[in-house]
Design a protein that fits this description.
Length: 361
């Protein structure tokens, strides 16, 4: 009897050990937690408006970025969020019941499905060039031991996961895995004129051919790691020239450069993000983008599109809301369903929150 008792005890202990190991493994993958049960078993079709927001690169060192000696501080203050603000924004979105869905899922034509009680949100990040070195922004995104880090040469620590939109989003999802439905991530809308993601991988970067080749290979590894996480890529045009002032020849040149230098790094994409949202869908120049395979166009504003855009059979026009210094000050009421902009606002900016009228008054 004593021997049988010890055998049974060992079996029970072994079962407990196996259960703990499985629980730990599932937890590390986001499986088995309370949220995932709800996520898998209580999904509903969402019939409302799918919000789409975007940011530019973040400012992490506000002392440098907003210094009176920084010639681009007005741009940083107007068009960018600080790292502190972006973290607060994610917290607000999470608190208000939003869950991240991928742009591809919106474009698939299938019903948008989210956990019951949640609202879908698409997110995109524009530019991602990092050409303002030592002015309060990071230098580049890098991969270390399979994880994405932001890298800044003249800062301590040089590597972090707290200074840029991608790395802050990854850290947030680590803490709140239910914020990302089906592993969704943001769409990265990149330029090419000074490389992408901080890598000087194009001839317009004015670096040596050897260095450009090294940067291209390194950038491909970072892009592969981002893609594996669920990030997708879009063209923000190669030269970041505004549509209305571009000639047809300039747009053709832009598309050729994108196809030659950026497409081999990020892969095919049907999505083009207009710089500053500026566009005219009826303009014959827009047909050039379509010839190069773009049929989804990201615009700016709280708008459903013109009658022409909504009726278009060969393209989709999707409008996005910017989150930046301007939006935090001027769109407090309009953005209240998404976030409390006053609570997000970083007091280390050099302009006050309570702006009225035009931005530069």
């Amino acid at each position: 009897m004593c021997g049988i008792y010890h055998i049974k005890k060992r079996i029970v202990l072994a079962a407990v050990v196996v259960a703990l190991v499985l629980f730990s493994a599932y937890a590390s993958m986001g499986i088995g937690s309370a949220y995932s049960a709800a996520d898998e078993n209580n999904l509903v079709s969402y019939d409302g408006k799918v919000e789409h927001i975007f940011t530019h690169e973040l400012v992490f060192d506000t002392a440098k970025a907003f210094s009176s000696s920084n010639s681009v501080r007005d741009c940083f203050d107007k068009d960018h969020l600080t790292a502190k603000e972006f973290k607060a924004l994610l917290g607000e979105l999470y608190k208000n019941g939003y869950v991240l869905v991928g742009l591809d899922s919106i474009l698939s034509g299938e019903p948008v499905v989210v956990p019951s009680g949640k609202k879908p949100l698409v997110m995109s990040f524009d530019d991602m060039t990092y050409d303002t070195v030592n002015r309060g922004c990071i230098d580049k995104l890098v991969v270390v031991d399979g994880k994405i880090f932001d890298y800044t040469k003249n800062a301590e620590p040089k590597l972090s996961r707290e200074r840029e939109n991608v790395t802050i989003l990854e850290s947030f999802i680590d803490e709140h895995p239910d914020f990302s439905h089906n592993g969704a991530r943001a769409t990265l809308c990149v330029n090419g004129y000074n490389g992408i993601l901080g890598y000087r991988c194009t001839p317009t970067c004015k670096v040596s051919e050897d260095y450009q080749a090294e940067e291209t290979q390194a950038c491909k590894k970072t892009v592969a790691a981002l893609s594996a996480l669920g990030y997708t890529f879009a063209s923000h045009t190669y030269y970041h020239k505004y549509f209305n002032s571009c000639s047809a020849a300039m747009i053709e040149k832009d598309c050729i450069a994108w196809q030659k230098y950026i497409r081999p790094i990020v892969g095919d994409t049907r999505v083009l993000c207009y710089p500053a949202g500026e566009h005219k869908a009826k303009d014959p120049k827009n047909e050039i983008f379509k010839r190069y395979g773009f049929d989804v166009f990201l615009c700016v504003g709280n708008f459903a599109g013109t009658d022409y855009e909504r009726a278009s059979a060969d393209a989709r026009y999707l409008y996005r809301l910017p989150f930046d210094g301007t939006a935090l000050r001027l769109y407090e009421k309009a953005y209240a369903h998404l976030a409390d902009t006053r609570a997000i606002y970083d007091g280390s900016r050099f302009r006050p929150f309570s702006y009225t009228g035009g931005y530069h008054k």
